[in-house]
Write a sequence for this structure.
């Protein structure tokens, strides 16, 4: 199951990182993502609306929805109960990863150093989030880490945008790239689905060019 989710994430190349303040906007957001050609969402547990938004998006069945900014095992439980297909964390925490694995859900924790990558490997993971990508050495750092860790794949996130997306996606070791630039919080709050759709479509065009 987790392999299939990883494959889908890699196939889509992009992971929109969502901060949503009102779960009532979840449906408009999901419709915009699908219309823009990117049926994927990482809904972060930075707002109280996260679990309800995940629930609303998961119920549609047309978006690969996961939870982001998952810091505790309790949040893993909450995310999985809401229908999250994967759980993303800024760093690697054993308890969080193990709870996700108990649920049979993909864990995508952050790792930006060789020591952190080894910790993730020890937990049985082969793909990690590379966060925050921009301030952790960017594409050059990923290339350097990929040399010893031949089987490991990275999902750089943090400081990625239309200007540097290509640098990351050009790397064989990059499974997908995450970011919030195509799902601005303000547009989601306004219920501006067309604005989101346009940004999503632009990102998809860049990612597949
Ligand atoms: C995340 O949690 O993955 C980041 O906040 C996304 O980073 P960005 O806003 O720089 O894209």
């Amino acid at each position: 199951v987790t392999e299939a989710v990883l494959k889908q994430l890699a196939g889509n190349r992009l992971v929109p990182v969502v901060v949503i303040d009102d779960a009532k906007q979840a449906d408009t957001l999901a419709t915009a993502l699908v219309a823009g050609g990117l049926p994927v969402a990482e809904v972060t547990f930075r707002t109280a609306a996260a679990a309800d938004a995940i629930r609303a998006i998961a119920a549609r069945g047309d978006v690969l929805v996961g939870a982001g900014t998952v810091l505790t095992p309790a949040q893993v439980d909450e995310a999985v109960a809401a229908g999250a297909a994967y759980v993303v964390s800024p760093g690697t925490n054993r308890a969080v990863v193990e709870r996700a694995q108990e649920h049979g859900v993909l864990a995508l924790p952050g790792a930006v150093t060789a020591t952190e990558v080894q910790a993730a490997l020890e937990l049985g993971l082969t793909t990690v989030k590379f966060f925050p990508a921009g301030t952790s050495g960017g594409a050059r750092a990923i290339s350097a880490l990929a040399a010893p860790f031949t089987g490991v794949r990275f999902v750089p996130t943090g400081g990625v945008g239309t200007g540097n997306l290509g640098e990351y996606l050009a790397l064989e070791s990059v499974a997908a790239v995450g970011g919030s630039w195509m799902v601005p919080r303000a547009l989601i709050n306004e219920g501006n689905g067309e604005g989101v759709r346009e940004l999503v479509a632009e990102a998809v065009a860049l990612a597949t060019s």
